[in-house]
Amino acid sequence: MWGAKDNPKKMFHDYYQSGAEGEHTLNTTRDAFNSIKLKARALGDADAFKGTETTFLGHKIASPICLAPTAFHMLVNPEGECATARAAAGTKTLQCLSTWSNCSLEEVAEAAPDNLRILQCYFSRSDEVNKDIFERAEKAGYKALAVTVDTQILGNREADAENKFSLPKGIKMGTIAKYTSTHVTGVEGSGLDEYVRKYKHNGFTWKDILKIRQFTSLPIILKGIQCKEDAAKAVEYGADAIWVSNHGARQLDTTPASIEVLEECVQGVDGKIEVYFDGGVRRGTDVLKALALGASAVFIGRPQLWGLAIDGQKGVEDVLKILNSELQRSMILTDCQEVKDITKERVIHSAYCSPKYLTAKI
Ligand SMILES: Cc1cc2nc3c(=O)[nH]c(=O)nc-3n(C[C@H](O)[C@H](O)[C@H](O)COP(=O)(O)O)c2cc1C
After folding, report:
1. What are the residues whose beta carbons fall under 8 Å from the beta carbon of 207, sequence distance 6 or more?
2. Where is the active site (predicted)?
């Protein structure tokens, strides 16, 4: 049998694809989307369709479908995150760059200078390093920081442990390599798990959100909110937006799918700040459902990686274009002429369609 050692492609594929532990959350995410039904509307005026343009923290984007931060793009393409950035620019959408990108944040900005970009943040234990990264991000034109709040420790990703996940020689983490080792080598198990325990600031808590606010004037988005209590807390701690996400089901297994907790998180922020969403978005109808339930933008993780692996920049662009064209079609068939028309009335929860509910109504 192939071991990951003999077949690095398997190790990289598993790293991109897998979820935590038994992958219960990963495997139920499609069902969660499919249990939400769309309400088709008759005779909407397709000629009057205006498009998918919208805003993200006040910045214009051509589509509400954006690129989520995913680490290590050079595992499948030598141009890494620069290719992904150009794809985002080609479709005029937003890229959120991972702290663990292989290309540095400056290289990515240079690759697509005019594109809207934000930086995802994991923190160092050194305030000086964190401050320096914020300053570099601001100088390179990043418009916000997405602080990941669901990764105090890495999820139990059994495939990575079994494969002893390691980064190939010569592939570094471009943004942080100047401060610290970015050597990821699995000896006993996942090299990334070992790396996170050793180098990441895992004692970063709510009070540190207040601290980083003093270090930067960039808007702060909290990525990885999964319940209304934390959504409300994010507002209390001065976040500019929340991002409902379970990290692609890679952290705590048996949590609900992100789409199942979106509405309660929206309630938690009570209209005070914007809400973004990711987790299992694979179709335009998924985008429509997330927007209808209160998200103002959605992000895709794995689909961009599959596009990148197959055809580089063009592959990512194709993924974004296909999803956006599916979104347009679904908008027209639910009588939404523009993004602001995508309201809660567009979806019907499956409970509504169950015989019990229907009987009760009669
Ligand atoms: C291979 C991979 C790497 C990821 N790396 C990061 C990361 O560096 N930082 C982060 O905040 N989230 C990371 N995520 C989570 C994504 O940002 C996003 O939340 C998730 O992939 C969305 O789910 P989807 O893959 O089903 O679209 C990663 C996800 C994957 C699949």
Report:
1. none
2. 247
Q: For residue 285, give Cα distances in angstroms to 108, 332, 334, 360.
A: 30, 11, 10, 29
Distance 156 CA to ligand 1 centre (A): 15
Q: Rounded distance, CA 123 to CA 196, Å? A: 11
- Which of 45-59, 101-115, 139-153, 179-193 has the least mean pLDDT? 179-193
Q: Is the dihedral of CA 158, 163, 166, 170 positive or negative?
A: negative
- How far is Cα 281 from Cα 274, in angstroms, rounded to an integer? 19
Where in the chain are the domains?
8-361
Q: Tokens for 216, please give them.
A: 């930067």
To the nearest 10 degrees (0 to 180), the angle between helices 258-269 and 24-34 is: 70
Concerning whether 183 is annotated as a catalytic residue, the answer is no
pLDDT tens sequence across 237-280: 999 999 999 999 999 999 999 999 999 999 999 999 999 999 99
| DSSP notation for 122-170 | ---S-HHHHHHHHHHHHHTT---EEEE-S-SS----HHHHHHT--PPTT
Count CA within 13 A, CB hemisphere, residue 69: 25
The CA–CA distances, whole Å, from 262 to 231, 250, 268, 310, 330 equal: 10, 18, 10, 31, 20
Place of tokens 């794809």: 87
- Flag whether 147 is marked binding: no
CATH of the domain spanning 8-361:
3.20.20.70
- CB-based pocket (< 6 A), ligand 1: 15-16, 68-71, 98, 100, 120, 148, 223, 245, 247-248, 278-281, 300-302
Ligand 1 centroid to residue 68 C-alpha, Å = 6
**Is 142 assigned to a binding site?**
no
